[in-house]
Amino acid sequence: MPLIERLQEAHERHPYITLIRPVGWSPFLLPLLLGLIESEFQSIIGSYKLILACILVCSAVYIINFYSDVESDRKSQVRKYIVMSKQPFVTGGVKSVNGLLLSAAFLILAFIIAFTINLTVFALTILGAVISIIYSIPPRFKSVPVADVLSNIIPAGFACYAAGWSAFKPITDLPVLPVLWLLSLGASAYILTQIIDIDADEKAGTRTTATFLGTERATRLSFGLYAMSLVFFTLSVLTRGTLIYIIMLPFFIMTLPYYNLLKNPTREHAYKLAFSGGVLFNGTIITILVFYTIARFTDLSMAFQPLVNIL
User: Fold this and answer.
1) Which of 41, 115, 294, 298 is the right S-S partner for 122, CB 3.0 to 4.6 Å?
2) For residue 308, is it within any domain?
3) Backbone angles phi and psi of 83, in degrees to 5
4) Number of domains forming the structure of the chain
5) pLDDT per residue as tens digits for the range 8-58
């Protein structure tokens, strides 16, 4: 059985797992980890507390998003890691009140954890959560072209990276190039997901950046933003030269499938690219987390320092 079908079946059996959407954590965890490592991953406990807070906020926001999209998902024919018309609030697998109470509990716990780290992290956590929530509820940025993209990339590309950095270093020293890389990469990836949903969004009357531009122009914009992200990534590697950027070099391999999508801009090709990107994102996150956790307790990272210095 194909992986996608296995995921769909697993989510139908476990509705609460579907609601918190673990496959959607990676666009937020990757910038957070980058920020933590750029700030030298100074405390294992502090780092993992912030990772937990990020997961809790992501889970809470996804629950709210599912709740807000009940009516449009009920009519949707889109099949991703789940069949959208079978999401838990549509099928009754989770009662609305239970889901919203769980979301509120996650947010409160996340804010408490962030507060125990420092006030800057606390403020950035609230900022990311608020922007992400108003993406789904009035004024519902999800239905406003451009605002839909910004309300996705600011929490991930800026708030998460800045929170990771600010866990151990002053926010005033926040480097600009990595933020520009993450913002452009996030915008590219988000527009790609909109292309997948373009038919369903048009039927539901949801006016996104992709529905406003159309498939071909949205694809060109997504590719242009991806190309821009490669420029900022290269500049980050050249100017910062830290090991974390060397580990992330595999992101360059997405260039070829992106170019193929540009030549043949269809929902199916966009979905394949998004799925491949998701696998790459999650694989990178696991690699980074394991490597730097081990390196924190050993001198393993020092063995690679000569390579970093040469590059």
Assistant:
1) 115
2) no
3) -85, 115
4) 1
5) 455 556 888 889 988 889 889 989 988 998 887 888 889 899 999 999 999
Digit-coded pLDDT (tens) for 99-116: 999 999 999 999 999 999
Check pLDDT > 80 for residue 126: yes
310, part of any domain: no
Q: Say how far apart CA 28 and CA 61 lie, in whole Å.
A: 12
Q: Which of 46, 175, 58, 40 is nearest to 106 (CA)?
A: 58
Residue 165 domain-assigned?
A: yes
Residue 138 exposed, middle or buried by CB count within 10 Å (0-12, 13-18, 19+): exposed
**pLDDT digits over 280-298, tens only?**
766 777 777 777 777 766 6
Please say if the pLDDT value at position 64 is more than 60.
Answer: yes
- Determine contact, residues 153/234, Cβ cutoff 8 Å: no
Rounded Cα gap, residues 73 and 86, in angstroms: 8
The partner residues of 187 in beta bridges, in order of sequence, read: none
Unique residue bearing structure tokens 């914009």: 221
Range of the domain at 287: 3-303
Q: What is the spatial distance between Cα 159 and Cα 120, in angstroms, rounded to a whole number?
A: 10
Residue with tokens 């139908």: 12
What's the pLDDT score for residue 271? 66
Q: Which tokens hold the place of 172? A: 């005033």
Asked if 136 contacts 65 with a C-beta cutoff of 8 angstroms, the reply is: yes
CA distances from 97 to 16, 94, 110 (A): 13, 8, 20
CATH number at residue 208: 1.10.357.140
Q: Is 85 contained in some domain?
A: yes
